[in-house]
Design goal:
148 residues; 5 strands
């Protein structure tokens, strides 16, 4: 077993790193990427300093363990980018506060408005067609409006 480790060299680490990254493409989960990156770093450092096989294994372990906080940092910063658009995938919440013209009158508390290419059901006080209404609440596919 020690003989196998003693033959570890620069090219072995580079090939191992590329194999791990290729496995990440086949089974995405972001885990193999960081191990592959650790193996590539060990391979690149082996070009420069030519460490013993024990030092190579130790470097791989340290880089692999250090990859976890790095992954969390990048994942967290990626999450903050999605917070820059809080209405993403929440179309109805983005409509709150906007004003629209009634397409059909609100009779007995129900009517419709056209928003872009979609007709939305609205609930609110009775109002004639053509009236301006303001969206005050969104619940699923139904909007609650008030006369603007």
């Amino acid at each position: 077993m020690a003989e196998m480790f003693s033959t570890l060299g620069t090219w072995n680490w580079l090939i191992f790193g590329f194999i791990l990254m290729a496995l990440e493409l086949l089974a995405p989960g972001v885990f193999m990427f960081w191990l592959g990156l650790a193996a590539l770093l060990v391979g690149l450092l082996s070009f420069v300093i030519n460490p013993s096989w024990q030092a190579q294994l130790l470097m791989f372990a340290v880089f692999a363990v250090a990859a976890v906080p790095a992954w969390r940092y990048f994942a967290r910063s990626e999450g903050s980018r999605s917070r820059s658009n809080p209405f993403l995938n929440k179309r109805t919440e983005a409509l709150i506060g906007r004003e629209f013209t009634l397409e059909r009158p609100i009779v007995d508390g129900t009517g419709t408005v056209r928003i872009d290419d979609t007709i939305w059901r609205v609930a609110g006080p009775d109002a004639p067609a053509g009236s301006r209404v303001k969206v005050v609440q969104a619940d699923g596919a139904s909007l609650t409006v008030a006369v603007a």
